[in-house]
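Need a sequence for this fold. Nothing fancy.
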């Protein structure tokens, strides 16, 4: 009996061993490899207003491809750029800093004496260090010659223009200008490939080819790098004036030249997304679509739509700095979401670094990681403050939560008939004397009703916060010198 019991016990133990072994997953032949980090595509429009897209109320043209992008991800209703002008805004997007922190202001002209300092760590530089392939296509506007072109800021390749395509010796009707005028003395506008000057852009017909050319180059970059993590920065020149559209879209929208341009932009976004689909990249690509600032309203029917916000490009009012923004990443960002939280363009850099597991800049930045918003963390609110700087370094306003306090200043305005042009010709600039005012943006997004007398405690609170920014970043209006600012690069000719 003892022998039988021992046999049975041994059999049971052996069976248990086999059952235990069978319950485990078979081990991998090789150690598990880290998941490939996501690709990132940043599509930046030029002078596209808050109300220019169909999914933000734009009409009567149609933007179905951008509508699809919005429905696949998150659409932001309170997205702010750092300043309502080209170079300042673009520097903030790429570095995560308020432009005045890094010595940048305005829109750099062809003979500008400063450029973005190459010591600043851009999205491209940080992702390149992470092992990404990096490419830029389109408008740079942060330096017009070597060593201040994209290849010196982390991009592996570049095709585009050094600045806006209205910096050329061409009149508003497309005819050449002679050198007796300031604009006529500007150099011939040329495409740049890498660091080398290429084809001249001298006519509106030349300009009409830019959107398609840039789209095709962007597609080529995606296909070439589909087996590597990549960062693509596609900075379209439109709908900045002079408006120009390819033959395949000219007259097709039924909404004038501006509508034609918008529908070609929509086509471009569709081509990018179809390329991702065709190459199996959609689910591992973070796509960001936004604008550098609001519409240049002085161009009238060749300008965009603020969606009812006050003023536009060239001001510190919300029509100049509040723009559309859509972020999509299927499977990671819930589809069809709308985010009403305040987010700023400086927040793109730290957010991208977070999702790509890349290092943050060594020097101080102003952006915050907004991934909690994108990933649906309940009650997340990473940004609750935003300061409105304009001109060289003037603190014109501050927003906290729903409140915006505007400080006394002189502002560009479009509120006069003479300020609005037509058919590509600009109106005459006008200015307003702005007084201290408090606006409740929850009930008054158009900034029309001053409620400072009813909420003096809010005025006091926001003034105290503004003083902190003045001490750190400076303020020309109150003659403050910032303690934590860094110099731009100096350009010599």
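Here you go.
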């Amino acid at each position: 009996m003892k022998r039988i019991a021992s046999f049975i016990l041994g059999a049971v133990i052996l069976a248990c061993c086999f059952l235990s072994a069978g319950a485990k997953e078979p081990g991998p032949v090789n150690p598990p490899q880290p998941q490939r980090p996501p690709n990132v595509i940043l599509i930046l429009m030029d002078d596209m207003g808050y109300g220019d897209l169909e999914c933000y109320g734009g009409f009567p043209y149609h933007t179905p491809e951008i509508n699809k992008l919005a429905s696949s991800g998150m659409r932001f209703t309170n997205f702010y750029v750092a300043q309502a002008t080209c170079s300042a805004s673009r520097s903030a997007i790429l570095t995560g800093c308020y432009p005045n922190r890094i010595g940048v202001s305005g829109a750099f002209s062809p003979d500008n004496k400063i450029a973005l300092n190459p010591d600043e760590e851009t999205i491209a530089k940080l992702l390149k260090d992470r092992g990404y392939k990096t490419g830029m296509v389109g408008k740079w506007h942060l330096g017009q010659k070597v060593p201040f072109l994209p290849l010196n800021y982390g991009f592996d390749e570049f095709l585009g223009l050094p600045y806006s395509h209205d910096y050329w010796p061409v009149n508003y009707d497309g005819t050449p200008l002679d050198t007796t005028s300031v604009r006529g003395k500007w150099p011939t506008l040329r495409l740049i490939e890498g660091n080398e000057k290429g084809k001249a852009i001298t006519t509106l017909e030349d300009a009409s080819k830019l959107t398609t050319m840039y789209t095709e180059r962007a597609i080529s970059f995606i296909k070439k790098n589909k087996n590597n993590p990549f960062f693509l920065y596609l900075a379209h020149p439109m709908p900045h004036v002079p408006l120009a559209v390819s033959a395949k879209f000219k007259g097709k929208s039924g909404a004038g030249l501006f509508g034609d341009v918008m529908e070609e932009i929509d086509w471009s976004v569709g081509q990018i997304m179809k390329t991702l689909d065709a190459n199996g990249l959609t689910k591992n690509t973070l796509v960001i679509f936004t604008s550098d600032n609001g519409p240049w309203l002085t161009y009238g029917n060749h300008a965009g739509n603020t969606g009812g916000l006050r003023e536009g490009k060239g001001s510190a009012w919300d029509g100049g700095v509040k723009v559309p923004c859509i972020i999509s990443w299927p499977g990671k960002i819930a589809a069809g979401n709308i985010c009403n939280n305040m987010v700023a363009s400086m927040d793109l850099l730290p957010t991208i670094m977070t999702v790509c597991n890349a290092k943050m800049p060594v020097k101080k930045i102003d952006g915050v990681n907004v991934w909690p918003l994108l990933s649906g963390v309940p009650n997340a609110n990473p940004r609750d403050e935003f300061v409105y700087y304009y001109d060289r370094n003037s603190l014109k306003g501050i927003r906290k939560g729903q409140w915006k306090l505007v400080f006394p200043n002189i502002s560009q305005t479009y509120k006069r008939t003479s300020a609005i042009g037509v058919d590509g010709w600009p109106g005459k600039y006008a200015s307003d004397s702005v007084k201290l005012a408090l606006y409740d943006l929850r009930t008054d997004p158009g900034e029309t009703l001053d409620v400072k007398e009813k909420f003096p405690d809010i005025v006091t609170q926001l003034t105290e916060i503004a003083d902190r920014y003045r001490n750190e970043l400076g303020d020309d209006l109150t003659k403050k010198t910032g303690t934590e600012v860094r110099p731009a690069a100096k350009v010599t000719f």
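For context: The first helix runs from residue 2 to 23.
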